[in-house]
Amino acid sequence: MVINVAPLLKQPLGTRVDYELQESPIDPRGDNAGLLDADIVDIDALVHATHTNPGAYFEGSADAHVAGQCARCLVPIDTPVHADFAEQYYATVPVEHGVGLVEPPLDAKTIGSDFKVDLVPLLREELILVTPVAALVAKQVTDFRREFAAVDLRAANHVNLTAYDVVTIASLVEREAEAPSERRLVASVIYNRLHAHIPLGIDATTRFEFNDWTRALTQSQLRSRSPYNTRIHRGLPPGPIGNPGLASIQAAAHPAHVDYLYYARKKDKRHHFFTASYSAFEQFLAANGYG
User: Fold this and answer.
1) Label partner for 11 (CA 20 to 30 A): which of 61, 91, 94, 143?
2) What is the pTM (predicted TM-score) of this model?
3) Is the model's pLDDT at 69 over the cut of 80?
4) Where are the beta strands (DSSP E) in the chain?
């Protein structure tokens, strides 16, 4: 929502102008696209702008809808939110009917020489603050329980895996498999390694332990005695390393019927090479620049 306050600032001090913003759905190419960063899909706001000595004072209220597909949630987030807001914007250039410029605080929002004020950052901040995180989490837990109750666990139970084990495996699949077609293959490698009593060797578990998802793991981290280090400990980590989606849960409950024990990421950074042969695995690593 971009407002040109030049006409307002030409009026006497205390003059008030009302603005209304209604957009549903929010255009990703429009002035309000920044609201989409907070998963706000529609908005209905009333803004009162008053000419003050420093510039313009904005106050009002906004009703919006927060909705979005969480990548690791079973169902989309969907909730209405309401926010009341107020903020002083300081003019940095002389305006008519002013009593002189006021030195704005260091963190103040300002009005520049084009006299245009973009209220999207303010609205986004205020709406994020009132988004009921606890309610969203509670809803996700309820939805998780409902969706998980419909998952057939007989294959997992047949090899002595519990429902908690399936969720743990699903969290590994969620991290490891970017291509949907590979989820059941990754799950199969995990099942096969568990059956063969081979350490899983999934570094995502160590990354979870150190909360480090971007930098290369150090040798000391890879040698960590943490139970989440699946390079040195056999079996599953103590618990899930993330919140898996339903597709990963289904894959963990119904792995592919293959004998793969190894996989490595291909050069496209999305797909993997799978094999049951350690020598073939080593050859792939050598041919693709793995250290």
Assistant:
1) 61
2) 0.58
3) no
4) 2-4, 16-23, 40-51, 55-68, 77-91, 109-111, 116-118, 262-265, 272-275
